[in-house]
Amino acid sequence: MQWLHGASMPELLTLSRAARLVGVPRGTLQKRIKDGELPTFEGMVKASDLLKVFPKTRLEDNAVLERLAHLRESAYARRIRERILPDPEVLATRVLELGRELSWTRAQFSHYRNILDALEMRFGELERTGGGVQVAAASLKKWLHDQRDAVIAEKEVTARLMAQVCVLRLMAAHVQVLPSNREFFVEGNDTILDAALHAGLSLDYGCSNGNCGLCKARVVSGQVKKVRHHDYTLSEAEKARGYTLLCSNTAVTDLVVEASEAGKPTDIPLQTVSARVQRIDRLSGNAMLRLQLLMPRSNRLRFLAGQSATLEVGGASEELPIASCPCDERHLEFHLRASDATPLTEYAFGQLKTNDLVMVEGPSGDFILREESPRPLVFLAGGTGFAPIKSLVEHAMALEVAETINLYWFASEAGGGHYLRNLCRAWSDALDNFHFTALAADGNYAAALQSIAASHGRLVEFDFYVAGPADFTEASGRFLREHGISPEQLNTQMVA
Ligand code: FES
């Protein structure tokens, strides 16, 4: 195990952890901070301030606690337990660390209690001995009493919240990445790399198998533990400076790591991977095909959400938008339309079957999410333009930073219809900040765009992502530019 120091004050919470506690997306907390409602201390929030802004937080009703209770009750949950709960050694170290913080907090509390008691005694003496001072002392003593009682009452509520923080810390370690300051959680025995990808971060890596050294990062504070074998050897100097392989280690305690991330398409090299067909779904009465590929663990395609890749199988090849997000681990998804009748779609509809090998080369394209933008998101998809939009929506959901995500999908029956309408409805049901509207694509987009504009008020307060056939992206782009949307707020992608 590797241990480097840097403990934080227990009552201060990172935004990610605070968001989990009160059950809102991180973007909602950021908005409250921006509006001046929630104070921050070096990017963290106080538990007591959090309770003031979210007084309706039901302390007994927390998704993580519920999950834990469910696991305890379920006699059949052994496999799930093994996947979700950290291993005993990791758990024991986290308990020890929490124990240390508990003793520190207790010592502080009793120290302040002693000071208050001593002060009270001094005032009592003043009261007994003093003329004019007597009145002042009596009122000060009363004030001191009131203050102490108020502090104790407030502490009780905060303590209950902090007890939940302890459970969260046992279940998952928090990781902060420098210099981007992005945050994510490591659950169960996940490697730090897998957890980061799952949370939508684009950390640098290569083999994800302990061979190439590309996922090397410096642990600034916290403790990691090797959970997967690696052949790559770190030098003694690197080890002394705290370097570790993110693909082979898990987080035992909360971590701060220095790691490189891809922020733009040129940060990621062109790769070729051989993936196996995992599943083929025929949708909209065989008008559409949803192709799901599984990549080998040691050779995954690195890409940014919204990018494309070239598929090659049965002598046919074609560049297609990737419909899954990098957070979807080893899975890649593509949407093919029968009426496109390209050599690749004809092969896929006619001959491709489960377990076949498909060569994937990529990534390509720059239709990616502007993650640093604080604006809420509007996605406009036309027909199979839904594929790259789906990738971006899933990525935005994984990042949990968008205040609202609005999806409008224009489709016609002839063009395959809203072939994953149920998925969009499931997103709407699961997330309060996601809104979906299915619209008909009749070639006349002006009226629909006008009504979308009317429902959003000031359009300039949103970022827009538009993907679909040429007439759709051109009409939408023109409409948005005419309504004052700047080039930084508008990203378009032509999909045939
Ligand atoms: S990604 Fe290759 S060693 Fe970690």
Count the E strands.
20
How many discrete structural domains?
4
The termini sit apart by: 52 Å
**What would the principal axes of the Cα set say about the shape?**
globular
**Helix coverage percent:** 25-40%
Average pLDDT, all residues: 86
Assess the beta-strand content as a share of residues.
Answer: 15-25%
H/I helix tally:
14
Largest sheet: 7 strands, mixed
Q: Which stretches of 5+ consecutive residues score pLDDT under 50? A: 1-9
**Cα-based radius of gyration, to the nearest Å:** 27 Å
The SS-based structural class is alpha+beta
The small molecules bound here are: FE2/S2 (inorganic) cluster
Describe this structure in words.
- This protein has 496 residues and is of the alpha+beta class.
- It folds into 4 domains: 2-168, no CATH class; 173-258, Ubiquitin-like (UB roll) (Roll); 265-364, Beta Barrel (Elongation Factor Tu (Ef-tu), domain 3); 377-494, 3-Layer(aba) Sandwich (Rossmann fold), CATH 3.40.50.80.
- Helix content is 39%, strand content 24%.
- It has 14 helices and 20 strands.
- The protein has helices spanning 15-22, 26-34, 47-53, 63-73, 78-84, 88-129, 131-171, 192-198, 236-240, 343-350, 386-399, 421-430, 446-456, 470-482, and strands at residues 2-4, 12-13, 45-46, 172-178, 182-187, 216-226, 243-245, 249-251, 255-258, 271-283, 288-294, 308-313, 316-321, 331-337, 357-364, 377-382, 405-411, 434-440, 463-468, 490-494.
- Strands 1, 4, 5, 6, 7, 8 and 9 form a 7-stranded mixed sheet that branches. It has a 6-stranded antiparallel sheet with strand order 13-12-15-10-11-14, with helices on one face.
- A hairpin with a 3-residue loop joins strand 4 (172-178) and strand 5 (182-187).
- The longest helix has 42 residues, at 88-129.
- The two termini are 52 Å apart.
- The model is unreliable at 1-9 (pLDDT under 50).
- The structure holds FE2/S2 (inorganic) cluster (FES).
- Residues 205-208, 210-215, 232, 245, 247 line the site of FE2/S2 (inorganic) cluster (FES).
